[in-house]
Amino acid sequence: MSTPESSRRVRVTSPRTSAARRPIIPTGTREIDEQTRLGEVYMHSLIQSQLRLTLAVIGGVLLVLGSIPLLFWLVPPTRTFAILGLPLPWVILGIVVYPVVYVAARIYVRNAERIETEFTEFVGRQ
After folding, report:
1. Cβ contacts of residue 71 below 8 Å, gap of 6+?
2. What value does the mean pLDDT take over residues 29-51?
3. Which helix (H) or strand (E) holds 82?
4. Secondary structure (3-state) at 23
5. Is 28 in contact with 119 (CB distance < 8 Å)?
6. Is the pLDDT of residue 1 over 60?
């Protein structure tokens, strides 16, 4: 025989409020991960933006540094001109070139990070 106390049922529940939820993946990110046509378009756009930036920075550096031999060719006195006892070509090629390259690198990194941030924000909103 069963007593009323032994037949009493107990409901056990688990709210699991602390359980990890599945992250919501934005559509744009999913498109890229699944390598769909839209994802390819997104990636192509990012690569094109990075390529344009790279070519612009390289072009600017080549223009500035490439004009140095032109300066020496068009203005012959610059070949023998001295600054603090050092010939001008040495000063330009040994001192001035490095800040130009440094500034170009800083411009490139800042703009590349901006492009990546804008791309991440755009894809994250999709």
Report:
1. 78
2. 85
3. strand 82-83
4. coil
5. no
6. no
**8 A C-beta contact, residue 38 and residue 31:** yes
**Span between the terminal Cα atoms of the chain, in Å:** 65
Total-model pTM: 0.68
Q: Which residue reads 């990070």 in tokens?
A: 113
Identity (one letter) of the amino acid at 100? V
- Specify the DSSP class assigned to residue 19: S
Contact 120, 32 (CB under 8 A): no
Task: Using CB atoms within 10 Å of the CB of residue 123, give its burial: 0 to 12 exposed, 13 to 18 middle, 19+ buried.
Answer: buried
Q: What is the amino acid identity at position 21? A: R
Structure tokens at 33: 């991960």
**Interaxial angle between packed helices 97-125 and 37-74, expressed in degrees from 0 to 180 and rounded to the nearest 10:** 160
